[in-house]
Amino acid sequence: MDLEIDETQLSLEEGVNNLPDLDLPRVAHLLRFTQEADDGTTRSQFLDRLQQNYMLPYYQLICEEWSIDVDEHWVNETTEYISNKLEELDSAIVDAVQNLGETEVRLCNLAKANFLCSIGDKKRAETAYVKTNNLTVGSGHKLDVVFTLIRMGFFFNDYDLIKRNIEKAKFMIEEGGDWDRKNRLKVYEAYYFLTIREFIKASELFLDSLATFTSYELFSYEENVYYTVLSALYSLPRVELKEKIVDSPEIKTVIHHNEPLKNLLDNFYNCNYAEFFHALGNITDELGNHRFLYHHASYFCRELRIKAYAQFLESYLSVQLSSVAEAFGVTEDFIDSELSRFISLGRIPCAIDKVAMVIHTKRSESKNSQYHETIKQGDILLNRVQKLSRVIHL
Fold first, then answer.
1. Which of 69, 178, 330, 362 lies in disulfide reach of 334, CB 3.0 to 4.6 Å?
2. CB contact at 8 A, 358 and 319
């Protein structure tokens, strides 16, 4: 067995690298439920990929999760290789400390951290990156290491690691960060918000960074548009959705490559509710295969259904239940059951007349409430002014 690791993974060049490989946990998530992933990768091929990249710690973690036997022969050989490689890297660090300058010391420590990250050794890689950052002077280089730690958090589903380093990155950028890294952080934070179901915050950041996206080490531009559209559908009112998504040139150039997403957006905005329901089912199935979003697939589907019902009913004071069922391409019993549940939860402002089988909408009195509140506050202010004037005259 030839144990020659790809030295490009250990590059000493500054800047954002592609470590760790975030495609690996994506495929691992799919293979957790099936023998073959969507790209045709089988379990045996996936394990071979880990072995070819000498990812011993991650290989052992996967074998434990999948309850399969490890390849003891490969484990022994790779353990020896990793031990020898770490000795080489430690020797290089000692030599740099004794004979070279601070920059070389930092780069040797970074090489060790990158190696540990490349093999999936989370604990030791995190320690090595923290040590590297302590040896780093420039804020840009420090941020690049922090971004790597955030990606490690995404790789291992470590939300604490992600959150801690996002907060650290935000503080460092406030102290002085360049334009590219500021925009990069927006994408990282937006993705984090998406994974913890903070779709409104995610949408704001995705939209803010859409035209300046450069975070290809995290995911592709096509994926970025996918997340932007989904979070915007959840969070934006109809007028803003048209302005920021439907008419967006950045969205238009990409979305036609994703038929399910395009169908979802177009049919929702154009009020083709039966087609929208069909597209929503397809998107929900897609989200069910996403390693972070599968937890939120049912919630997202429910919230968009509520939004679609509210958008439809907004045009009516009253409407026949059969008309709603026909518009959404479902049965009257389904609509009755759905709306009854959402009405009882206070999510849709309407009432169902079971005798006449009619839905009566309840108009929002927000403008009237604001008007009366303004009058009330104005009266309070006038009373205070009058009291003050009496005091002054005395």
1. 330
2. yes
Q: Beta-carbon neighbour count of residue 7 at 10 Å?
A: 9
DSSP helix/strand/coil, 360: strand
Cβ atoms 244, 209 nearer than 8 A: no
Confidence of residue 252 (pLDDT cuts 50, 70, 90): very high
Band the pLDDT of 365: cuts 50, 70, 90.
Answer: low
Q: Rounded distance, CA 129 to CA 247, Å?
A: 43
- According to the model, what pLDDT value does residue 371 have? 59
Query: How far out from the chain centre does Cα 227 lie?
Result: 7
Closest CA to 109 of 141, 156, 68, 79: 141
Assigned token pair, 301: 């589907």
Q: Is 228 left (phi over 0), alpha (psi -120 to 50) or beta?
A: alpha
Task: Please calculate the CA angle 354-360-362 and round it to the nearest 5 degrees.
Answer: 140
C-alpha–C-alpha distance, residues 162 and 22, integer Å:
14
Lowest mean pLDDT among 28-37, 193-202, 295-304, 308-317: 28-37
pLDDT value at 394 more than 60: no
Tokens 């007349």 identify what position? 353
What's the pTM value of the predicted model, to 2 decimals? 0.86
Residues 209-220, buried b or exposed e (16+ Cβ, 10 A)? bbeebebebbbe
Higher pLDDT, 34 or 226: 226
Beta bridge partners of 361: 350
Sequence-ordered list of residues with C-beta below 8 angstroms from that of 267, at least 6 positions apart, any chain: 273, 275, 276, 279
What mean pLDDT is reported for the chain? 89
What is the residue-wise DSSP string for 222-242?
Answer: HHHHHHHHHHHHHH--HHHHI
Identify the burial level of 385 via C-beta atoms within 10 angstroms of its C-beta, where 0-12 means exposed, 13-18 middle and 19 or more buried: exposed
User: Per the structure block, which two tokens stand in for 318?
Assistant: 């009253």
Element (H, E) at 300: helix 297-313
